[in-house]
Every structure is written in structure tokens, then in C-alpha cells.
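COMPLEX REQUEST
Ligand: NAP
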Amino acid sequence: MYDVIIIGGGPAGLTAALYALRAEKSVVVIEKLGLGGQIALSGEVENFPGTMKMSGAEFAENLAAQVDALGGRIEYEEVVEIIDGNPKTVVTDLDRYEGRSVIIATGVKNRRLGAEGEDELIGKGISFCAVCDGSFYKNRIVAVIGGGNTAVEDAIYLSDIAQKVYLIHRRNEFRAENRLVRALKSKSNIELVLETTVEKFVAEEGLKSINLVNVNTGEKRTIDVDGAFVAVGQIPQCEIFRDIITLNEGGYVAADENCRTNLEGVFVAGDCRNKTVRQLTTAVGDGSVAALAAIDYLGG
Ligand code: NAP
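STATUS: Structure written out below.
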């Protein structure tokens, strides 16, 4: 039996582990893929206070090493259910864990466009991670779809690798920060394709072209590309908890400012929590708040 079971090994979950371990609680972190979450895929992090520049992978490795040095246990399994009770039971695809408290830190996953041909071409020309897959497109032609920070950052990143980058966005204004939009517009090999959506990804031994449609005029256009990067936001990974944890309309876990959910002894931290700002800083902030709330709940 553990004092704290943490579901998710991203910045929020690992920070929660760090705080709980330092309070001498027994901790297991259950992670389905790899430690570090989405930040591990970020090329450069320049907005983490106290650090001029670091790679996302470096940040994730250091945080995981901190947890390891304190004796935290990490299991690579997929959680399928939390069963309420005293203790609580966390069921995975391989095992069952009992804990006096649980912290949900499952984060978000990439949203798909839902366009024709998308599902079949994922991994065969369509990617969700420019930093991971950008190098495959040296001197080739790629498209990025989206208008948020991720899409604009991806387009800028890819413009240094690819011959040409199309940035396709459904509106004529960007959700991304102004400084990023300024940098985007300074790149001569990025073509902005605004007020346009993707109708179809066309395959021919991988991705061959994208059929586009203008949202105002209905005019259609086809662009030949070697790769496409879909960056249209994220969706929370909380559905499996819906039966016992209150989720908001968007599917994020509802919680108070101390990261307490509706279920006593169950806390939430990071991008999967109902909040407006999802940043590395807020994820680690949540991790510490949730852990301290769990410690308080445990009577420590
Ligand atoms: P986001 O901010 O939610 O932006 C998603 C973009 O995709 C929006 O432009 C949206 O268009 C578009 N979109 C959504 N659904 C679509 C659809 N079905 N078809 C076409 N376009 C669609 O997502 P994000 O860029 O991944 O960023 C997520 C969070 O991480 C944000 O809070 C962001 O600030 C943060 N982030 C920060 C940094 C940084 O600080 N360096 C880097 C990356 C991400 P509309 O604008 O029309 O809605």
C-alpha cells in the first residue's frame, strides 16, 4: 500500500512525486509511455524561471533523476480505473495498486483534425511533433495546421529545416503570442494559408498532397507536400475517470484551488485540470500544490 499513487509521469506528476517523497511518503508513479510528458518533446524551453535555456528532454530527465534519487518507484503501465474506497485501488492493464491517496496527472493528448485520410497517414507523412519528426523533411515541403503557439512554433522550427512550409489556419488571426507571430512573418519560406481548412490528406506511398478549402469563398486548392504537422490543440486524458470524478464540459477534471477533486483523497495536477493557463510553470505549480494537499489529507 502506498501513501500516494500518482497517475502520469509528466512535469506535474513528477513534481508531485518529488514533494511527496521529500515529505517521506511512499510513492508510486504510474506512467503509460515515457517520463516527461509533452515537455520532453519540446526543443527549447526559455520561459522557465531561473533557467535561460534548456531542452524539454533535459528538463524531464533532471526531474525524473530527482524522483529516482529520492527512491520513488515508477511503473510503466496504463491505468484503466480508480476504485473508490479506503484504501483506493488504481487498476492498470497489468496490476492493481492500493493507495491512501491518488493524484491524477494524466495530461492531454493531441487533437486530430478529423479530415479524410488523416488516420491512415499518421506516421506515414502526418505527425504531431515537429521536434521529433522535422528532421525527416530536410529541404522538402511541409505543412503545419493550426494557429496556436504550437503551430506557429512548429512552422518556425521547420522553416530552418524544410525548403518550404505552408501554415494552414482556419481564421485570419492567430491565437499564438504576438512575438511568435512576428517571428513567423519574418520567415521568407513560410507561406500563410489563412481562413482555410483541410478537406483531405491525399495518399500515394505516404502523404502526397492536401486538399484545402477556403472557409469564406469555398474555393478549393491542392498543395503538394511531403509531410504535414497537425497542431490544433489538445484534449484531456481523463475520460476513464468520468464515472467517479467530476469533469467539466471540456472533459477536464474539476478541482478547487488546492487541486482537490470531488472525491476525498483524490487530487489532480497539470494540464488535465480545469484551468485557463497550461504551461510548464503551472504544471509544476499544480504538482506541488496537489502533493501538499495530499500530504495534508494523509495527516502529515
Ligand atoms: P491551442 O492554443 O488550443 O491552439 C489550437 C489551434 O488549433 C487554434 O489556432 C485553433 O484555431 C486550431 N484548431 C483547433 N481545432 C481545429 C480544427 N478542428 N480545425 C482547424 N483548426 C483547429 O493549442 P496549442 O497551440 O497546442 O497550445 C496549447 C497550450 O500550450 C496553450 O495554452 C499554449 O499557450 C501552450 N503552449 C505554450 C508554448 C510556449 O509558451 N512556448 C508553446 C506551445 C504551447 P482557433 O484559433 O480558430 O480556435
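REMARKS: The mean pLDDT is 95. Residues 130 and 265 are 38 Å apart (CA to CA).
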